Amino acid sequence: MRLIRSELLALDGAAIRYGQCWEDADVLTEALGLQARHTCLAIASAGDNALALLAASPRAVIAIDASAAQLACLALRVCAYRVLDDAELQAFLGAQPSRERPALYARCRPLLGAHDRAFWDARPRAIAAGIVSAGRFEGYFAAFRRWILPLVHDVAAIASLLTPKSRDERARFYARTWNTPRWRAAFRAFFSRAVMSRLGRDPRFFEFADGDLATHLLERVRHALVELDPAANPYLRWILTGGFGSVLPFALRPENSAKIRANLDRLSWQQCSLEAFIARSEAPIDRFALSDVFEYMAPDRYAALLEAIVARSAPGARLAYWNMLANRTCPAALAGRIVPDEARAARLHAADKAFFYRRFVIEDVA
Q: What is the dihedral of CA 47, 50, 56, 57, to 10 degrees?
């Protein structure tokens, strides 16, 4: 039987695949339009975006993941939001440099459940480094930052890239300084499917991929460096420098973290696949934050799961999810029951700071 992402994650429950969420929570929260009456189901991943959804004060957010390690990342974040102030939170997670993380962990530790406490007690290096760096995917970017990027661009070029510029100035900088033959060659080699499969993601994640990975990513990098503002992009800044500086993702911005803290009791989480949750779900769900979970399913399995989601949705429910290399949008069999919001999705995709996805999908249940 072919495996979906949640099942793949379960193959190694002790491995952290993602130390942070690599989907833009600004895009996600705007797409979902959460209101106080809504219950939202979210793929947990590292927990950042499940927490971000709390800023809208919904009735409930239910985070699921088949990986115990990913849920441990969420659990530790929840504890950190409860006991740390904003500066301490940013330092502890790894958004800012700090040598105080073991001491900050000691303050969070008593709030963890026994399983999660044992998980993190066994990973003092991950705590000391900041858990946003703890995943295999982050290790892949760190290898690029340490070994490949210095061969192509020096510190001054990176600093210039991250300095605010007009769109025309960004286009000139990209053409004249950044997009060199050496850059393209190094990028294609490191971000090939073979290297990413070995160092960054499980090779089975590419089973249903369509198209050349490096070519797609080079196109999206140009979009991020020219059409978007690199100086305001926390994901790009972390890839290139290993930190966020003052450019924080949604859940760590002080104007949002206060709202998140106020709503932590509305968040729950459980270890299961999306299919298992939908199969046993009884209460209707209003909003679905589904990450890129459909990317790793065969089309027929995706269609069957989407139909099950529709059957258990509240009237007017909304789904939001990403495609990278596999096209997953409403199949013809569900036309009329699911209505894609293509214009809004395209607008948000154009602004998506987590720039490497091919498509952002918003679908409303009719």
A: -100
